[in-house]
Amino acid sequence: MQILSKSARTRQWIIERAASVFNERGYAGTSLADLTDATGLTKGSIYGNFENKDAVALAVFDYNYNRVAAYLKAKIQATDNAIERLLVYPDTYRNYLKVPFLRSGCPILNTAAEADDTHPLLRKKAAGALAFWKKAIENQVKRGIDRGEIKPGTNPTQVAVVLISLIEGAFMQAKVTERTTELKIAMDYLEEMIRGLSV
Fold this sequence. Notes:
Blueprint: H1 6-29, H2 32-39, H3 43-49, H4 53-77, H5 82-94, H6 107-118, H7 120-146, H8 156-177, H9 181-195
Helix pairs in contact: 1-2, 1-4, 1-6, 4-5, 4-7, 5-7, 5-9, 6-7, 7-8, 8-9
């Protein structure tokens, strides 16, 4: 086990405490006062560990995204069947309120919606995370085809794009309406779509 230096521990503390604040309020909506309230640290302590708010936001995005990715990866790797692996997505997002770090929304969606024109570095992070997610789904579909679990001729890119679009679009509706009705409808549809890929 790696022992972190005091400064590394402080940085990690700031990232962990600021994670939900940035994900809920966004970059523009998060003030320095919000960060000092969340961390219990002074402005000097925060900026002694991070160059500026941008640096905190970038580190927090990585932290938030990596938590979601690790959670999904563990659930996906708990089963061997390609269809079951893909069903992890509608199951997780249908029940997102049970996952503490997803309650404030998907970090990719939250970041992309705000940073499209205002924060190029955050937009680049979100675009990279989205590309990685898309590739991971494509690989699951290809694996399923190779193993005879998914219909031959299934287009992996099409499945990935539609899956991500359904999840992110449904999440956006849930955030705006403050209800999960449309999200559940979309995840039920996504589950049917995935089951329809089975041989």
